[in-house]
Amino acid sequence: xxxxxxxxxxxxxxxxxxxxxxxxxxxxxxxxxxxxxxxxxxxxxxxxxxxxxxxxxxxxxxxxxxxxxxxxxxxxxxxxxxxxxxxxxxxxxxxxxxxxxxxxxxxxxxxxxxxxxxxxxxxxxxxxxxxxxxxxxxxxxxxxxxxxxxxxxxxxxxxxxxxxxxxxxxxxxxxxxxxxxxxxxxxxxxxxxxxxxxxxxxxxxxxxxxxxxxxxxxxxxxxxxxxxxxxxxxxxxxxxxxxxxxxxxxxxxxxxxxxxxxxxxxxxxxxxxxxxxxxxxxxxxxxxxxxxxxxxxxxxxxxxxxxxxxxxxxxxxxxxxxxxxxxxxxxxxxxxxxxxxxxxxxxxxxxxxxxxxxxxxxxxxxxxxxxxxxxxxxxxxxxxxxxxxxxxxxxxxxxxxxxxxxxxxxxxxxxxxxxxxxxxxxxxxxxxxxxxxxxxxxxxxxxxxxxxxxxxxxxxxxxxxxxxxxxxxxxxxxxxxxxxxxxxxxxxxxxxxxxxxxxxxxxxxxxxxxxxxxxxxxxxxxxxxxxxxxxxxxxxxxxxxxxxxxxxxxxxxxxxxxxxxxxxxxxxxxxxxxxxxxxxxxxxxxxxxxxxxxxxxxxxxxxxxxxxxxxxxxxxxxxxxxxxxxxxxxxxxxxxxxxxxxxxxxxxxxxxxxxxxxxxxxxxxxxxxxxxxxxxxxxxxxxxxxxxxxxxxxxxxxxxxxxxxxxxx
Length: 713
Known about the structure:
This protein has 713 residues and is of the alpha+beta class. It has 5 domains: 189 residues, Orthogonal Bundle (Hypothetical protein af1432), CATH 1.10.3210; 147 residues, Beta Polymerase, domain 2, CATH 3.30.460; 118 residues, Beta-grasp domain (Ubiquitin-like (UB roll)); 141 residues, no CATH class; 75 residues, Alpha-Beta Plaits, CATH 3.30.70.260. Helix content is 49%, strand content 16%. It is globular, with a radius of gyration of 33 Å.
């Protein structure tokens, strides 16, 4: 329908809404953007048959309902012009300036790349989405609004396309809206995604929900009236709303708790919107006196906001009607933030926020999250790995823990003390030596719980170990560990490869320096090595054997030397980083007699001479290397200790205390067997050397609860 002014009805509706909160000159800019967009898209139609320009107008309307700034809305109207019309960035920049042009280009760049596989396309698109968001969050607001309108008009698409878009919406866009605190958009995206991905399930739950709501409408009204009376009695001015839960939230609960629809009882939720934070807590006390609260179901997101800035009090009550009732209590400002999240930041910039509005907490937290993701992607070369990291951060069951100074750190569920260290700073994580949780020292692999206080003690001598990857839970920690290991590995392996080759040549009466330059060049070319460092790296990893390379580099040398002379032993100081590893079968420590085996998949692995595997290794003498401990070693070395103790209350803490007092850290502990009289405990502890290990074992033997103690391996 075309209005008398020449603008379609949808544009006039948008204009009227914009006039309620934007200055006239900014509304004029948006109308100019419409004129340019309408001209550029003229002749284009959507699958619904309507003119294409009505889609970007609808996207702009969604953003205007969120009271976004004029720059976002103008960019929304133009968001498809660079990709689908003759308009360029320069055209938009000339007409509207670089800010609007950059936003349009940011949205455009998300859809431009083509890839070999669908999975790869999804992963790389997601990486681009995160990068665009990090530059200006308004890019993702426009993209989310674009997706929301596409979902509203998805009925015109083929079934396969509907399912693909719906799955992408549930996997990517709804979680992003949630992470940004945009709950209203999240719920609509979820329900429409659910309806298109699983239409029968959606229809069945909706029909049951409508029937249930009809039967219980009187009960809901009675609860609503009781809540209003109670708020009047305690003098809390507020508004109270009731709502039924969404089909998708019920479906998720049925899946996660393995319930049938009839077993789901909390279909109804009420929201109390008070004026001040103090009134929220007063309202909470009042409703807890009205209906009995369910134990363990209260959450205070006002004192401990969610990672996306969401604040509210949540509680579940037992009503007299046999139905549990969920209640959320928050202020008006918190309600705005809960609905719009990070997007509320741009509403505040327009000057329409009331006096005393809170700072844009959601926007700040969203920005921090994005910066963490950008840091992750910087150190992640593979798009699929980045997508895996990012998704793990988009679906967090979050916990909140404290630093010793009281700062709140939010982590995903199952995060460890090591994850906490990396959340503080990458440098702290990389040099984490010990962790104290509520003033008790714990292994770095300890899973954290809500409300704990964590203190990290660092040591510049400590560096990330490959085994840290086995228990690190957050993307930031895992990426930082991998990056550190990768950067050290090349340097360490080149140095070790040099030692191995020098040792092999010395055994032949030769040396690296004695090999002519032209022979080096010829050998590297014939064996497809770009640089000498690449060869040394392969030697350290065991992919190429040093004595074979030595024979090819100096084939005449073995004519002049007795091959039974193996050359000088390689010294091990514990500072070789990831260039070598220590056998998990015997866990050698400084002071043990040792040898090394060049494994084709692990590189140089150090074993105790008494290790049960050494006899097998000796069958391959070309892979065996003489090694000795350096006079001064660095770092701590793992040792496995088996303890048989009296099975009394507190025995684990008692034994752990003995280990700690001997100056050793506990890495892991397990209890493989127990009976009423005794318990067998397996500790992995860290020691400096064999003497230190002996001191730990002596202290354990003096413990009255310990019956036997022995080293394993």
